[in-house]
Design goal:
Elements (H helix, E strand, L loop, with lengths): L2 H7 L6 H4 L28 H5 L4 E4 L13 H10 L6 H16 L3 E5 L1 H15 L3 H6 L9 E5 L8 H4 L4 E5 L2 H7 L4 E7 L11 H10 L4 E4 L9 H8 L3 E5 L11 E5 L1 H9 L16 H16 L2 H19 L6 E6 L8 E6 L9 H10 L3 E7 L2 E5 L5 H16 L3
Parallel strand pairs: 1-11, 3-4, 3-5, 5-6, 6-7
Antiparallel strand pairs: 2-8, 7-8, 9-10, 10-12, 11-12
């Protein structure tokens, strides 16, 4: 028996985590979820930051990958820790986690990927190869002309390199007529970047889907950073997109290295064949470990069960509280802002001041905060600061507000 056949055959065995140790089932979806006492992680017993000489950072900016995304929820850490002691068959785990996620999102099928960028690659690969074993083995070096993916010119962005990694080429279009004319026998997919520029002859979601369906080509939407609102997790498949991706490590607060890919069952099954634990497909280097799969499941479940209206009001209250502290400094103005989205659509604070009265520039304040102890990262430009509030732990709210106040006050 070949190794691959042996490994797949093990999927018939019960999942280890469900039988060993606690005796609890792998998923507790049918039981009432225990409410978390806090959305914040507990402090570790061992200071690895100090041990390795790494500077811990307070993120008063946004869910940026270089700042490690966001902090995982306690429910996520529980899922990771409680499943780290046993082995599991990864084919079975991906199937069962995907089935539960699909159930929660009301879609045909779903899978956990190593971030949304991996989902872009796997989704594109699925559209190119289907379940053809020879194509899966050969991609990205398929014989013949390169496959094509249609994208609006105004939607070109850094992460579309994940598409061309499959060997496909991007065909830029502007407007509905040009998109309609761009389809040919080499077209395998149409990609919509949800946070793309809408200033120049944009094609709406509905029109984009309709044109792709007219040509019987799958449509894929990248909505990586587009929650909140929570409704976006359901919106795009209802509109008719065949594939959807979201990041797992942003506001869903799952593992930073995890993402979600969901949509049509046949495409998700093809995406799985292009991914680990299969031994040599294009997605093998982007493997997801079992703890991340359990963690992503737990994160999504906790996110869907959250009181989002209360959370939003808590953010507004936090912004108002911090703004009062900032405005104790002469000439400082603090205004609660809400990004128009669709990415990172949540409250923040715009802080400005009269530099003839507070003799320090925003870039100087940003540097002082970053270089201080603790290190605080905020966004901004020459006009002012953009203080992110949604990622702050409760004990960091006053700390950040007072540190910014301190930097401004000493320049008066």
């Amino acid at each position: 028996m070949k190794r691959r056949e042996l490994v797949k055959g093990l999927a018939a065995l019960p999942l280890a985590g469900g039988l060993i140790g606690s005796g609890l089932s792998v998923f507790a979806a049918d039981k009432p979820a225990a409410k978390s006492k806090s959305l914040e992680p507990t402090e570790p017993k061992r200071d690895f930051f100090k041990e390795l000489g790494v500077t811990p950072v307070i993120n008063a900016a946004a869910t940026m990958t270089f700042l490690s995304g966001s902090l995982m929820l306690p429910e996520v850490m529980d899922a990771i820790n409680s499943t780290s002691h046993h082995f599991a068959n990864m084919y079975e785990l991906q199937d069962k986690v995907g089935a539960k996620i699909a159930e929660m999102l009301h879609v045909e099928a779903a899978m956990v990927t190593s971030g949304a960028a991996c989902a872009l690659l796997l989704g594109t690969a699925a559209c190119i190869t289907g379940t053809d074993k020879e194509k899966i083995k050969t991609i990205p070096n398929l014989p013949g002309e390169r496959k094509e993916v249609i994208i609006q010119k105004s939607h070109r962005y850094l992460f579309d390199q994940a598409i061309t990694t499959t060997g496909a080429k991007l065909i830029e279009v502007t407007g509905k007529a040009e998109m309609d004319a761009a389809f040919n026998s080499n077209t395998v997919m149409a990609l919509f970047y949800n946070a793309g520029d809408v200033s120049s002859d944009p094609i709406s979601h509905e029109d984009f889907i309709a044109i792709a369906k007219k040509h019987n080509v799958p449509s894929f939407i990248d909505a990586a950073a587009d929650v909140p609102p929570v409704e976006n997790l359901f919106k795009f498949q209802k509109l008719g997109f065949d594939l959807v991706t979201f990041s797992g490590g942003k506001m869903i607060r799952g593992p930073q290295s995890a993402g979600l890919l969901f949509g049509r069952k046949d495409l998700i099954e093809a995406a799985k064949l292009n991914h680990s634990p299969n031994e040599a497909p294009i997605g093998r280097p982007m493997k997801v470990n079992k703890e991340e799969m359990f963690g992503m499941y737990a994160a999504l479940k906790a996110y869907l069960e959250r009181d989002h209206k209360k959370e939003w009001q808590d953010w507004l209250d936090r912004a108002a509280h911090m703004s009062k502290i900032f405005e104790t400094v002469a000439s400082v103005k603090a205004v609660t802002t809400i990004s128009k989205g669709p990415a990172n659509a949540f409250p923040g604070i715009s802080v400005t001041w009269d530099e003839t009265k507070v003799k320090v520039s925003p870039p100087q304040v940003i540097k002082a905060l970053k270089d201080g102890t603790p290190s605080i990262v905020v966004n901004g430009n020459n006009k002012g600061l953009n203080v992110g509030i949604v990622l702050l732990r409760p004990e960091e709210v006053d700390l950040v507000a007072n540190r910014i106040k301190e930097e401004l006050k000493k320049a008066v």
